[in-house]
């Protein structure tokens, strides 16, 4: 079992839990027997509050290899309210990515059509208007470069497509560092992927107040930019 202290709890109340998901852990239950975030948080609440089988629901997800800030619902009503915000695109998500090479412009917008292959769980860029293809759009801004050929960028998703950042960055010839699936041999020799959900903003489902949570990545390719994040260890 993964130790309870390995997942950072940023905020909790009777409606929601806001956490930093570590890379390598699934956002919700899968066919695998490995621990996932929903099961982990149920165990956390059971130990802390003595509840048997407490309610915890995932309302959004991060790919298994991606870490970062996530919100989980503690009641069905909270789950519905948060899901409506996500569907209405009023939840703001920002990411940090370490990419191989450097985008041509210091900031810009990437717009592609993506098609997901359900059998292989891989998405690809396809011509506009392709049957079952979906428009994907993101904006990025370069934050720092290093002398090893890597660039740190901030990314804001304007759409939420399957593996969107990973696919679009690879298509732009700046694959996410450590991303073997889409970057192949050009992704660098990293165990972890250089993609992290650093900021999440939403309206609290109970109080209706706007809330914003942030976290800094402290592992993998992000250690190349330790001076930017003031990383002193691999916590």
TrEMBL record:
One of its GO terms (molecular function) is catalytic activity, acting on RNA. Keywords: Isomerase. Residues 16-171 form the Pseudouridine synthase RsuA/RluA-like domain. InterPro entries: PsdUridine_synth_cat_dom_sf, PsdUridine_synth_RsuA/RluA, RluA_PseudoU_synthase. It catalyses: a uridine in RNA = a pseudouridine in RNA. It holds the Pfam family PseudoU_synth_2. SUPFAM superfamilies: Pseudouridine synthase. GO terms for biological process: enzyme-directed rRNA pseudouridine synthesis. This is RNA pseudouridylate synthase. It comes from Catenibacillus scindens.
